[in-house]
Structures are given as C-alpha cells and as structure tokens.
Amino acid sequence: MVRYVVPLIVWSVFILAEYAGAQDIAAVRPQPLRPDSSRSFNNISFLFDDSYDTYHWTGNGAYQNLFGSLFCSVNENFQSSVIKADRTYITDQQQFDLVLRRRFSSLLSGAVKASSFILSDDRSINLGKTSTQSLYGGIEYRPMFQFVLEPLIGVSFDKQTAQTDKGISYLLNTALDTIDYNGYKTALAGKWKYDQLIPRRLETRNLEVSIDRNFFEDTRNSLEAFYSYLRRDIYIPAEQAIIEQYNTAYNIETRTESLLGFLDTLGYSINQKMSLTLSGTIAGREIGRATLLEDFSDPAQLTPPTTVDELRLEGSSRFTYRPSDGMHATVRFDYLERDERHTIDNPGVPPSLYSTLEQSEERKNNHSRRTGLAGDITAALSSNDTIAFSGSGNLLRYDTPSLENDDDRDELWYFFSVNATHRFNRYLTGRVMGDVNLMHLVYIASTRSANNTWNRIVRFAPAFDYTPSTDFLTSNTFEVLANYTAYDYEFGAGQVESFAYRQFVFHDSTVYKLTPHVSLSWLHHLKFYEQGEFRWSDFSERPVNYFADKLYIASIRYSLYSGLLFSVGFRYFSQTRYAYQGSEKYVDHFLRSIGPSTEIAWASGKHTVFSLKGWYENQHQTGETNRGFTNVTMNLLVHI
To answer: Strands, DSSP E only, in 444-563?
Structure first.
C-alpha cells in the first residue's frame, strides 16, 4: 500500500506547489474593477428553512479556474435536517470533490482527484453512518483534440455501520467529443471504477456511444448504445447462527446490476407541414443478489443467490401536422413490452428445498404489454380565440405465468381535455379548462375480481384575468372536481367500498401598484371538499366527512430600487372538519393559524442575491392549547 500512497502524496505536493506559485503571480496583477460575468458558474449558495420544529440547512459551492497551466475545480454540497418530535432526528450529508490538473504538453497532463462523501442519519439502521473518502493520482492523455483518456490510481476508505475498510482504488475515465466523419457525428463517454476494499469490492462501469447522421433535408437518424454495471457489497447484521459459526457480527450482501441497451431514432420531414418520428429501444437488465456467509447447519435457513432478468422492447411513432401558424396537430403511438424472470443461481441446498425456493422465485415472473394512442390539436380560431383538444388511451396487460400468482390484470386508461381561451377586450381574458380521466382495473382471476374498479375523475375550471392598467392585475379561478371510485361488484349496504370525493375551489390573486415603489398584493384561496361512501348503480352517496379550508394572505411591498424589496403582511388559514351523524353535519375539528409575515429581497448587481422570509403564526386546534410557531427561510446566492 505504501508504494501507492507515497507517489500520490509527492504528486499532490508538486501540483499544490504549482498552484501556490500561480496564486503568488496572480496576487501582483492588477485586479479588475468589476467581477467577470463570464465566470458566473463559480458560485456559493446557502439556504436555511425553519418550519414547525423542522430545520433544514443546504450549502453549495462550485469553483473552477485556470492558473496558467494549472486547472482547479472544487465542488462542495452540504445538507442537514433536524426534526424535533418525541425525540430529535438529525440527518447530515456532505459531498466534496476536488480536481487538479497540470498541463505538461498538448498531449499530457498530470491529474489529482479527491472526493469525500459522509452520511449520518439517525433514522436509518444499516446505512445510517456511512462515509467514503478517495484520493487519486495519474495522467490525462489527449492523443487528439476530441479524445481524452484518464487513468488514475489511488486509495479509498469506506465506512459503513461500525466497519471501516480501505484498499486500492482504480479509476479510468474516457471521453470522445463529437467528431464528424463523412457526415457521421460520433460521441463517446465511459467510466470504470474499482475499489478493492477487503473483504468487500465496489465496482462501477459506464459506457455510452452515440452516432448521428443527417441524410438529406430534415431527415436525421440517431443511434445510441449504452452499457452499465454496478456492484455493491453491503454490511448487514448477521443472524445468531452466523455469529456463532463465523464469529462476526456482520454479514456481507452483494448486489449487482448490469444493463445493455440500444436506442434508434429516425426523424423524417415529409414536407414543410408534416413530419414523422420513429424510435425503438431494446434493453436487457440483470439484477443479482447474494449473501457471503451462509448457515449450512440448517438448510432451511439458506438464502441462495437470486437473479432477476428483464428484457424491454419499446417503440413509438409520432406524426406532426402544422398546416398554418395558428394550427398544430400531433398523433402518437407507443408500445412497450417487458418480460421479467426470477431464478436461483446456486442450487446448493437439498433438492426438496431447492424446488420450494425455485417455485417461490418463479411466482414473481411476469410479462407486461402497454399500448398507447394519444393526440392533440391546437387551433387559433381568430386573433381573440384559441382552442386546444387532447386525448389518449392506454391499455396495460399484466400476465403472470405461475398458477400460484393471481395478480394477472388489465388496466385501461382514457384521458380527454379541452382548453379554450377568449379575449373579450384588451383588459379581460377568459379561459375554460375541462378534463375527464377514466381508469378501469380488471383482475383476470376470480379470486381477486372483487377488486375490479372504475375510477372516474371530472374537472371543470373557468378562469378570468382582468388588467385594466399596468398598475392593476387580478386573476380568478373557479374549479369543480368530482372523483368517483366504484367497484364492479357492489355488495350489500353494509359492505359498500366504493367512495366519492367532490371539491370546489376558488382562487383569487390580485396585485395593485400604488406608486412606482409601493404595491399591494392579495391572495384568497377557498377550498371545500367532501368524502363519502358511494354506490354507482343508483348514483347515491352517504357523506362521511366534509372540509372547509380558507387561506388569506395580504401584504404591502416597498421597493427602494429594482434590486431591494421590503414586504410586510398578514396570513390567515383555517380548516374546519365536519363529521356526520346520520344526515346531520357537525363540527368535528377546527384548526386556525394566524400571524404576521415579512420578507426582504436584495440583489446586489448580477452576482449576489439574498432573500429572507419570516412569519409567525399562532395556532389553535380543537382540544389543544394555543401554540406559537416561528418560521424562517433564508437564501443566499453569490456568483464569483
């Protein structure tokens, strides 16, 4: 191990010395009077949120720069959450990446990479305390301008639960920027990472190749091939028999996933008004799972390795017709077929037990086919009227070969919508939106046919926008929604399982600008909804509960100049829940939240944005004492 660590340290010190020299030279150079806006990708941001005894912190930083022949890139992300309930739950996550490259020539550069990932979660048991730190050194080789090959070697430290493993890590990155050869544009990207963390192994492989070709006019074909492989060895608590046989508190579970697929897309322009796009995908995926240590003293407790093989075939066609600037129509057909097979890899158990385990895996096998047809049309009937229609239908057939699995089912979806806009005059615009969503679920086996259901959702929402001047704007929306879920086989009155949900919403948003610096805003949101048992055969309902939600937000805003805003306001929310005794409705629960709010937003030029929002609420609930909550949200973004 020492023979790998020492060169890495020497190489890191060499590059850092070069970096320090670049800093010394840059320090004596005249500094620009204003920050360079072209480097806006370098930024630091911080977000804090406090709401109802839940606290969130998020910090991000990204920096890239070139100091002569030395390139430096630093990325930092930190997230923390604290939830105060019956006990305090804390979750921290940190990700750090550092890249240093020193160019020796146009072909060769030296590279150092360091990364760190730390996760601490009180709510998780197995993966609640994990961390990974890696340090690499190597070269970056560019035999041509578009192609790069970067082999690196280093060390990696990985901690999970109470176990810390370390070992040699290999990293290989390769990329080929788009090159054009006889009209074929080719690009490639690949990565291989292997960590030998005795007794565990971690491995990642990714490769993606794409080839594009424009044949003539607007006809274009694109072919993509992609491959990935992922292996993770994870510590899991050992069972008592494993502890006694192997004298260890942890077992190792190996999870692997490999994927290989191809995607081809053909775009063909029939003429200036019509175009056709065809695409097809074939992909195979294999998921494996195995346990390192087994209890061979009790064959019934063996967990042999299992494999899931998945094959996906997907195709689609899209036809677009645009006869004029004011009209557009699209028709799309999709087909997806998926086959999933579960097997046992190693029959290292008695034949009788193996047969039972094999049947258990085969019970999970399934084959599904989804067929869909969708279309939409948008037409400008006049300069003041626009209407749009859309609709789709999908059929899913889910089959299970095993006679012991009764989950075979068909699912049928229908969706229709209409959206019409009419401009009455330059001040008033009206919109009408409506849609219908239907879904029928049918189980094939008689043992589950009692769960066959129809779900019907109907929504109608007119809206109006009124702007008599540039200083006044009001928008009002009314919405009516009904959701009915009915079982195909409804039983007696005592066994009604179908249900209904109905809702009415009114939303009003108004802004009035008193002066160039002062404006008023108002938000009014009312929502009334009820739930009840329902019988579709006679379209009757027995209400169960009823809710009335009311939200009012008023604020006055003062803008000193375009980059500085102050706001104070008032927020009120209430929810009244009603229950039913027979046909009589009575108040079952009441919640009210009321309090002031404030906001400060400051944009210092194009490079710094700061905002602070806060509101206090006094909360009253039925059967509880009044409580007060302070809520704060702060956001800071700095472009370097």
So the answer is: 453-469, 472-487, 499-513, 518-535, 540-561
Residues 571 and 552 sit within 8 Å (Cβ to Cβ): yes
Q: Are 371 and 395 in contact (CB under 8 A)?
A: yes
* First-last CA distance in the chain: 40
Report d(CA 393, CA 389) in Å as an integer.
14
Q: Residue 15 phi/psi, 5° resolution? A: -70, -40
pLDDT, tens digit, 9 for 90 and up, residues 354-382: 778 888 889 999 999 999 999 999 999 99
Number of C-beta neighbours around residue 623 at 10 A: 6
Of the candidates 418, 437, 548, 415, the residue with the CA atom closest to the CA atom of residue 484: 437
Look up residue 607 and give its DSSP letter: T
Cβ distance 518 to 556 under 8 Å? yes
| Torsion angle, alpha carbons of 468, 469, 473, 476, to 10 | 10
Q: Given the DSSP bridges, would you call strands 88-103 and 70-84 parallel, antiparallel or unpaired?
A: antiparallel
Helix (H) / strand (E) element for 26: namely: helix 2-27
CA dihedral 37, 39, 44, 45 (to 10 degrees): 60
Question: CA triplet 375, 377, 383: central angle to 5 degrees?
Answer: 170
The model's pLDDT over 85-120, given as tens digits with 9 standing for 90+, comes to: 888 889 999 999 999 999 999 899 999 999 999 998
Q: β-strands 499-513, 472-487: how paired?
A: antiparallel
- Decide: 477 and 461 in contact? Cβ < 8 Å: yes
* Triad 405, 406, 408: Cα angle to 5°: 105
Query: If you search the block for the tokens 């899913």, which residue do you land on?
Result: 396
**Distance between CA atoms of 90 and 81, rounded to whole angstroms?**
6
Phi first, then psi, for residue 20 (nearest 5°) are -65, -40
**pTM of the shown model:** 0.81
d(CA 44, CA 249): 43
Q: Which amino acid is at 341?
A: R
**Cα–Cα distance for residue pair 437/435, rounded to 1 Å:** 7
- Sign, CA dihedral 550-556-561-564, equals negative
